Amino acid sequence: MAFGVNHSFLFGILFAALVLTPGQANVDVDPPGLICLRGSCVGNTQCALLCVGNGHVKGGSCVGLIPGLILCCCNN
């Protein structure tokens, strides 16, 4: 039953890797000409209003940076 020991070891490594890794990718680099806000984007209209409210008079829109991550990005 040597496989049982190796299986437990592998499970422990997998558990540690899942616990120690962050849940969501952080995007620290804004696309050229845009300033992206934290949090997911609900819709283009709300994003544009949010950008104007934050002082970006040109508004903004939802931008998909990577699959599954859509942010509100304001025009710079």
UniProtKB/TrEMBL annotation:
Signal peptide start-end: 1-25
Entry superkingdom: Eukaryota
Keywords: Signal
The name this protein goes by in its record: Defensin-like protein
